[in-house]
Write a structure and sequence with these properties.
With 61 residues, the protein is mainly β. It has 1 helix and 4 strands.
Amino acid sequence: MIAFFDASALIYLIEGADPHALLAAHDAAGEELARVRVASGFKLNKASASAWIDAGFRRPD
């Protein structure tokens, strides 16, 4: 597993027979706000993080 951090969002890359990523958001106290499964090629950047938050943390397409 590889974890990347960007602002308050994390993306975990899961390798194996079914590669995917888990996108997670945490508040300032470290409490998890959301966690969703995304494609392993999902690009986490300022625009995609903002869109995810604006969509109420629904799984990005």
